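Quick one, probably user error.
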C-alpha cells in the first residue's frame, strides 16, 4: 500500500496495492508512448 500525507488538506491518503499497480502501469505506459524527433523517450537522458 502507498500512504501519502497531504498537509494542505490535513489528510492521510491510503492507496491500496491495486490502485498503486494501476498508477505505475499507466505511468510506465506513458513513458513508452511519448517520444521526440530524435527517437528518445521522455526521461531518457542519454
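Nope, works fine. Designed sequence:
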Amino acid at each position: 500500500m502507498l500512504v501519502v500525507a497531504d498537509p494542505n488538506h490535513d489528510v492521510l491518503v491510503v492507496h491500496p496495492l491495486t490502485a498503486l499497480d494501476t498508477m505505475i502501469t499507466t505511468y510506465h505506459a506513458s513513458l513508452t508512448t511519448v517520444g521526440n524527433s530524435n527517437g528518445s523517450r521522455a526521461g531518457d537522458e542519454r
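The two ends are 33 Å apart (CA to CA).
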